[in-house]
Automatic annotation (TrEMBL):
Leader peptide range in chain numbering: none
Keyword Transferase: yes
Entry EC no(s): 2.3.2.27
This protein's pathway: Protein modification; protein ubiquitination
Presence of keyword Transferase: yes
Gene Ontology terms: biological process: protein ubiquitination
Protein name as catalogued: RING-type E3 ubiquitin transferase
Database matches in InterPro entries: ARM-like (IPR011989), ARM-type_fold (IPR016024), ARM_PUB (IPR058678), Armadillo (IPR000225), Ubox_domain (IPR003613), Znf_RING/FYVE/PHD (IPR013083)
Lineage: Eukaryota, Viridiplantae, Streptophyta, Embryophyta, Tracheophyta
Organism this protein belongs to: Gossypium gossypioides (Mexican cotton)
């Protein structure tokens, strides 16, 4: 990954992103085991020093930032390229950005004076700066600092709209990484970032799709962002992609999350989601997809009893819902049985997440 490889050596599939999330539970288990065995763990501070945080490197970082702020365009491009590589390959350089409140604003200087759509800003410079932001956002202690720097989210949104496809993908990945913090989810949602993310999802470029879907999913974990996503047209875009067989697993997970929002449920019914979801339940081999589909169908049918007709016909023809009630995940069984109960008795049931 440090060399820029994005292909899994085992499956040969291209990774959707190269963001590594620390597993704090396993780390704590290792720490406890070492303590019980009398083994001393290496000092994290010492490790960081071994990674090369020296005064010379600290000086080098801030000299590069000074070039971005004051130098001519060729020097800005050279500095931006080097910062991109340093923050990609050296975790120590990511942490150094937290030492100065001016570091991130200085990084953004080349993007702040002009707008990419004007043609003045060079796309390679934008790509390097946005990718450096992504690299910085990977560092846990930077997430709050990066997101709360005033110009960051607006510039990420501009990159989503007007960057190269790699810049768009990296901007979406940065939003996904930053949205690991709940406070950032709210901040990013209020900034209006869901709108360009949904537009980019609608564009459907394969390089950006997974990063975009991951960002939308993370943001919609909090209820206020579900309302924003629905308002910005997420339901119709997601349904169209699912019907086209694009990124079905990821987009079904988002749709299931949005199904707790009343307007989203109404739109699903209006846009013909029921036949599509029934077909996936019948044909899919993925238990998680079946679970998400039946959960959505359960909610849609609670909202509009006329949609039960299609489910009744499916059940009579294929026994699809009965099969899921027997063989599905525990949640899928619960939702399937709820639908069967309505089909048999025509009485209201209590919807639970």
């Amino acid at each position: 990954m440090k060399a820029g490889n994005r292909t899994c050596p085992q499956t040969q599939q291209v990774l959707s992103h190269t963001v590594l999330t620390p597993n704090h539970l396993v780390s704590e288990m290792i720490s406890q085991w070492c303590k019980s065995q009398g083994i001393e763990l290496p000092d994290p501070v010492q490790n960081r020093m071994q990674e090369g945080v020296t005064e010379a490197e600290r000086h080098h970082l801030f000299s590069l930032l000074d070039k971005l702020s004051a130098a001519a365009l060729p020097q800005q491009k050279e500095a931006a390229k080097e910062l991109r590589l340093l923050t990609k390959n050296m975790p120590s350089f990511r942490s150094l950005f937290g030492e100065s409140e001016d570091a991130i604003p200085q990084l953004l200087t080349p993007l702040s004076g002009t707008k990419s759509r004007s043609g003045v800003l060079h796309t390679d410079l934008q790509e390097d700066v946005i990718t450096t932001l992504l690299n910085l956002s990977i560092h846990d202690s930077n997430k709050k600092l990066v997101a709360e720097t005033p110009k960051v989210i607006p510039l990420l949104m501009e990159a989503l709209r007007f960057g190269t496809i790699e810049t768009k993908s990296n901007a979406a990945a940065a939003i996904f990484t930053l949205s690991a913090l709940d406070s950032n989810k709210s901040l990013i949602g209020k900034s209006g970032a869901l709108n360009p993310l949904i537009d980019l999802l609608d564009e459907g470029h394969p390089l950006a799709m997974k990063d975009v879907a991951s960002a939308i999913f993370n943001l919609c974990i909090i209820h206020e962002n579900k309302a924003r996503a629905v308002r910005d047209g997420a339901v119709s875009v997601i349904l169209k992609k699912i019907m086209d067989g694009v990124l079905v697993n990821e987009l079904l997970a988002i749709l299931a999350m949005l199904s707790t929002h009343q307007r989203a449920v109404e739109e699903m019914g209006e846009l013909g989601a029921v036949p599509c979801l029934i077909r996936i339940v019948r044909e899919s081999t993925c238990e998680r997809n079946k679970e998400n589909c039946i959960a959505i169908l359960h909610t849609v049918c609670l909202n509009d009893r006329t949609k039960l007709k299609a489910l009744r016909e499916e059940e009579n023809a294929h026994g699809t819902i009965s099969k899921l009630a027997l063989d599905g995940t525990s949640r899928a069984k619960r939702k399937a049985n709820g639908i069967l109960d309505r089909l048999r008795k025509g009485v209201n049931i209590t919807h639970t997440a």
